[in-house]
Amino acid sequence: MQKLKDKIITEGRVLSDTVLKVDSFLNHQVDPEFSVELGHELARRFAGDGVTKVFTVEASGIAVALTTGLALKVPVVFAKKKRGATQGKNSYSSNIYSFTRQESVDIHVNKKLIAAEDRVLIVDDFLAHGEALRGMAEIIAQAGATLVGVGIIIEKVFQGGGAALRAKGVRVESLAPVISLAGGKVEFAE
């Protein structure tokens, strides 16, 4: 998606060979109109797959997951990083490691929100090592639901998470696949 790539170049900042900061429009401050465009593009790519739920993890993926769900006309579910007092033990959970925050965290989803008959599309802002996606896929499996695929705004291809998912047969659609951040320059896959 060329408009996204252009926005990354003009508004993003490369902080290191592994860190791309896009908090001015994607995951701290949100550009609502642009988020709608991103969600519509992901929805277009998965339109024929019978998606019944869009799934993400709090908090950075919520905006684009919401716009994708809106375009697909399906509910959006997001995993919480703390089990709510109202959930009790009635939730699916998985442990994920955040390389950005350098910590492990449990994510939780109320069992009533994802069912065996659901066809689930995972949507997230970034794909790097794939830990969050692995955890969400584990929750989908716990529910007995079907993972339709993964829609990602920015994939850091060089960190291998996407390749690992694809090797397991998971369909991954990335709007901006980044193959390098070396030398402070963003380089996209063709």
Structure description:
The chain is of the alpha/beta class and 190 residues long. The chain has a single domain (2-185), classed as Rossmann fold (3-Layer(aba) Sandwich), CATH 3.40.50.2020. The protein is 29% helix and 32% strand. The chain is built from 5 helices and 10 strands; from the N terminus they run H-E-E-H-E-H-E-E-E-E-H-E-H-E-E. It has helices at residues 2-11, 32-45, 62-72, 131-143, 161-167, and strands at residues 13-14, 20-21, 53-57, 76-79, 91-98, 103-110, 119-127, 146-156, 172-180, 187-188. The strands form 3 sheets. Strands 4-3-7-8-9-10 form a 6-stranded mixed beta sheet, sandwiched between helices. The protein has a two-stranded antiparallel ribbon with strand order 1-2. Helix 5 links the parallel strand 8 (146-156) and strand 9 (172-180). Helix 2 packs across helix 3. The radius of gyration is 16 Å and the shape is globular.
CATH class: Alpha Beta
What is the N-to-C order of secondary-structure elements (H for helix, E for strand)?
A: HEEHEHEEEEHEHEE
What strand line-up does the widest sheet have?
4-3-7-8-9-10
Any idea how many domains? 1
Beta-strand segment tally: 10
Helix content: 25-40%
* Straight-line N-to-C gap: 11 Å
> Structural class, from secondary structure content?
alpha/beta
CATH topology: Rossmann fold
Per CATH, which architecture? 3-Layer(aba) Sandwich
Largest sheet, strands/sense/barrel: 6 strands, mixed
Mean pLDDT, rounded to whole units?
93
Please give the radius of gyration in angstroms: 16 Å
Beta-strand share of residues: 25-35%
Instruction: List segments where confidence is low: pLDDT < 50 over at least 5 consecutive residues.
Output: none
